[in-house]
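Record type: monomer structure entry
Structure origin: computed from sequence
Chain ID: A
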Amino acid sequence: METIGAFDAKTHLSGLLDRVARGERITITRHGVPAAMLVPVREVRRKLSHEEIVAGMRALRKRVKPDTMSIRELINEGRRF
Protein backbone atom coordinates (compact mmCIF):
# COMPACT_ATOMS: atom_id res chain seq x y z
CA MET A 1 0.00 0.00 0.00
CA GLU A 2 1.42 3.34 -1.05
CA THR A 3 1.09 6.64 0.83
CA ILE A 4 0.80 9.93 -1.03
CA GLY A 5 0.30 13.53 0.09
CA ALA A 6 -2.96 15.38 -0.57
CA PHE A 7 -1.36 17.87 -2.96
CA ASP A 8 0.21 15.12 -5.08
CA ALA A 9 -3.04 13.14 -4.97
CA LYS A 10 -4.94 16.14 -6.30
CA THR A 11 -2.35 16.70 -9.01
CA HIS A 12 -2.24 13.06 -10.14
CA LEU A 13 -5.78 11.89 -9.34
CA SER A 14 -6.48 10.40 -12.77
CA GLY A 15 -3.36 8.23 -12.65
CA LEU A 16 -4.12 7.19 -9.07
CA LEU A 17 -7.62 6.11 -10.08
CA ASP A 18 -6.15 3.98 -12.87
CA ARG A 19 -3.85 2.28 -10.39
CA VAL A 20 -6.68 1.71 -7.92
CA ALA A 21 -8.83 0.23 -10.69
CA ARG A 22 -6.04 -2.33 -11.22
CA GLY A 23 -6.28 -3.36 -7.55
CA GLU A 24 -3.86 -1.11 -5.65
CA ARG A 25 -4.76 0.57 -2.36
CA ILE A 26 -3.45 4.10 -1.79
CA THR A 27 -3.51 6.12 1.44
CA ILE A 28 -3.77 9.90 1.12
CA THR A 29 -2.18 11.94 3.89
CA ARG A 30 -2.57 15.52 5.01
CA HIS A 31 0.57 16.84 6.73
CA GLY A 32 1.74 13.24 7.25
CA VAL A 33 -1.49 12.10 8.91
CA PRO A 34 -3.65 9.56 7.00
CA ALA A 35 -6.83 11.32 5.83
CA ALA A 36 -8.34 9.00 3.22
CA MET A 37 -7.83 5.74 1.43
CA LEU A 38 -8.45 4.94 -2.23
CA VAL A 39 -9.54 1.33 -2.60
CA PRO A 40 -10.96 -0.59 -5.56
CA VAL A 41 -14.70 -1.08 -5.74
CA ARG A 42 -15.53 -4.63 -4.75
CA GLU A 43 -18.59 -5.11 -6.87
CA VAL A 44 -17.91 -4.45 -10.52
CA ARG A 45 -21.00 -4.03 -12.61
CA ARG A 46 -20.90 -6.54 -15.40
CA LYS A 47 -21.62 -5.59 -18.97
CA LEU A 48 -24.83 -6.75 -20.58
CA SER A 49 -24.54 -9.51 -23.12
CA HIS A 50 -25.74 -9.05 -26.69
CA GLU A 51 -28.71 -11.31 -26.00
CA GLU A 52 -29.75 -9.25 -22.94
CA ILE A 53 -29.59 -6.01 -24.92
CA VAL A 54 -31.71 -7.45 -27.74
CA ALA A 55 -34.24 -8.86 -25.25
CA GLY A 56 -34.51 -5.44 -23.60
CA MET A 57 -35.07 -3.73 -26.94
CA ARG A 58 -37.77 -6.23 -27.88
CA ALA A 59 -39.53 -5.70 -24.55
CA LEU A 60 -39.43 -1.94 -25.10
CA ARG A 61 -40.87 -2.33 -28.58
CA LYS A 62 -43.80 -4.32 -27.17
CA ARG A 63 -44.55 -1.59 -24.61
CA VAL A 64 -44.53 1.28 -27.12
CA LYS A 65 -47.26 1.10 -29.72
CA PRO A 66 -46.59 3.23 -32.81
CA ASP A 67 -50.16 4.55 -33.09
CA THR A 68 -50.51 5.63 -29.46
CA MET A 69 -47.68 8.18 -29.26
CA SER A 70 -46.33 10.76 -31.64
CA ILE A 71 -42.62 11.06 -32.37
CA ARG A 72 -42.48 14.22 -30.21
CA GLU A 73 -44.09 12.35 -27.29
CA LEU A 74 -41.62 9.49 -27.68
CA ILE A 75 -38.70 11.95 -27.62
CA ASN A 76 -40.04 13.70 -24.53
CA GLU A 77 -40.63 10.35 -22.84
CA GLY A 78 -37.04 9.34 -23.53
CA ARG A 79 -35.74 12.58 -22.01
CA ARG A 80 -37.25 11.67 -18.65
CA PHE A 81 -34.50 9.10 -18.17
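Annotation 1: The chain has four helices and three strands.
Annotation 2: Helices lie at 6-11, 13-21, 50-63, 71-79.
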